[in-house]
Structure formats: C-alpha cells, structure tokens
Write a structure and sequence with these properties.
- By secondary structure, this protein is mainly β.
- It has 1 helix and 22 strands.
- It has one helix spanning 82-90, and strands at residues 11-17, 20-21, 27-29, 44-49, 58-64, 67-75, 96-101, 105-111, 119-121, 125-134, 139-141, 147-148, 152-157, 166-171, 175-183, 186-196, 199-203, 208-211, 221-225, 236-243, 247-253, 257-258.
- The strands form 4 sheets. Strands 1, 2, 3, 6, 7, 8, 9, 10, 11 and 22 form a 10-stranded antiparallel beta sheet that branches. A 5-stranded antiparallel beta sheet has the order 12-21-14-17-18, with no helix packed on it. Strands 13-20-15-16-19 form a 5-stranded antiparallel beta sheet, with no helix packed on it.
Length: 259
C-alpha cells in the first residue's frame, strides 16, 4: 500500500486536503463495507508496434497514467449551510496536497471533474464517495528535505525512484558555477551556469532556469556530463558538489518520490 507510509501510525479515518482536515468538516472516512482499498499502482499506457510475420507485438514504450482513487466519507452534519461549506472546501480547480493524518508522504491531487452529490440520511447525515485524481502519480514528502551547501555534501535518495530537484544558487559577483552529482565516485550529471551574477533558480521537473525576477537564464545553462539537460537524482547514496569563485549560497530540494 503506497497511499501511506506506515499503516501502524496512520489515521485512516481522516485526511488532509485543500488546506484542512476532513474531520474539521464533520466528516470521517467510512463506508458501507469500511475503507479497504488503497492505491497501489496507477495504470500504464503501453505503446506497441506490430511487425509483419512476427507473432504478437513489440513493446515500444510505457508510461504511468494519472493515479485515481476513491475515498468513502460519512458526513455527520450536512444541515443548514454546512453542506455549502463542504462544497467550498472540496472545490479546487488545481491540485492540492492530499495525505492521511499522521502520514509523511503526500499526493498532489484534486477531485475529478464529475458532478458530486451527497446521499442524505435522517436529514443531517450524509454519505458519498470522493473520487480523486493525481495527474502526477508519484508520492512526495509532506515536508520536503532541503540540502544547503556551497562545497559538497553526501545524502541518500530515500525515495524508490529517481527524482528531479529544485536548485537555487546565488553568487556575489559574476562567475561560472558548476553543479555535479555523483554516485559510487562516478560523476553522472554535471551542469555549468555561465556568467551568473545574482540568483539562478532551476526547476528540473519543469525544465526551467530563471533569475530571481523570473527572467529565463536558459542561454547560460550548459550540460557537461549526462544525458538529461536538467539535474536528476539517482537512487542510493549521492554526492553533490557546488563550485564557483563567488558562490555564496546553494539550496537543493531533492523532491524525493515514491511510486
């Protein structure tokens, strides 16, 4: 079960979404048969090709699709304007942090776009299933790890997949900046930021590099080692090295992730 990190400590009757807990809206995770199903793996989209004279098909590529899951909820009081307050809480056009109480990992999810209703019981009680979708199917730390260094530091990718870090580096004067990631004493990824004077903000998942004012610095970025233009963090023990004559600060958010 990858909905949660440790079933022994997680409160499966309450979850956090869109800024508040279910319990603060007089709700509890429940259902006619209890809550027994957790999202283990999202579905996959496989691309295949057929070859004349060859039995079957050849798998060309495969990618994860968005993760979809459903949570049954019992509402203890939907009288008066409380049902409207519930609607306000659940209504979000963007993805929000979703996690069960006391967990340490989260999804970035939103309610699916279908119309939602509540089955009313005895005037004040209600029950429904909340269907969520996480377009990014991976789990992330609720409180992200941040690594600060202006020389080098060794850390462990605690997730079970490679991750794509956010990096902010600042210089006090114009200089070249090198950022190197290595594993088992072998450099597997190295980038260079040319003539940086100020702050550069790299977002590896979105593949952007900008200054503090949001102006692109794409022309200053060069890939020296590796197959990807933007940094990534392999599984296992990783060493990151930051060098530059006038580097005054560098923070790295690894964005550890789990399938």
């Amino acid at each position: 079960c990858k909905h949660m990190n440790n079933l022994g400590t997680i409160d499966i009757y309450d979850f956090y979404y869109n800024g508040s807990y279910l319990s603060s809206h007089d709700g509890v995770v429940a259902g006619s048969n209890g809550f027994k199903e957790f999202s283990l793996l999202p579905s996959r989209e496989d691309q295949t090709e057929s070859v004349i004279g060859v039995d079957g098909e050849i798998l060309v590529s495969s990618k994860l699709e968005p993760r979809q899951f459903s949570v049954p909820v019992l509402w203890n009081d939907i009288s008066g304007m409380k049902i409207r307050n519930i609607a306000e809480w659940l209504d979000s056009p963007t993805v929000q942090d979703f996690y069960f109480k006391n967990d340490t990992i989260k999804l970035k999810a939103k309610l699916d776009k279908k119309e939602l209703s509540i089955n009313n019981m005895f005037d004040i009680y209600g029950m429904n299933d909340l269907s969520f979708i996480a377009y990014d199917p991976y789990f992330y730390e609720i409180t992200p790890t941040v690594i600060s260094t202006i020389t080098n530091q060794t850390f462990t990718n605690i997730g079970n997949k490679i991750s794509f870090p956010d990096i902010t580096v600042t210089t006090s004067a114009e200089c070249y900046v090198l950022i190197t990631f290595s594993k088992d004493n072998v450099d597997y990824h190295k980038i260079q930021i040319k003539n940086l004077n100020g702050t550069a903000i790299l977002n590896s998942s979105k593949r952007t590099i900008k200054d503090a004012n949001g102006v692109t610095l794409e022309s200053k970025l060069s890939l020296l080692t590796g197959s990807r233009r933007y940094p990534y963090i392999e599984k296992g023990s990783i060493k990151v090295t930051v060098s530059g004559a006038y580097v005054t600060a560098c923070s790295i958010t690894p964005n550890f992730r789990w399938i």
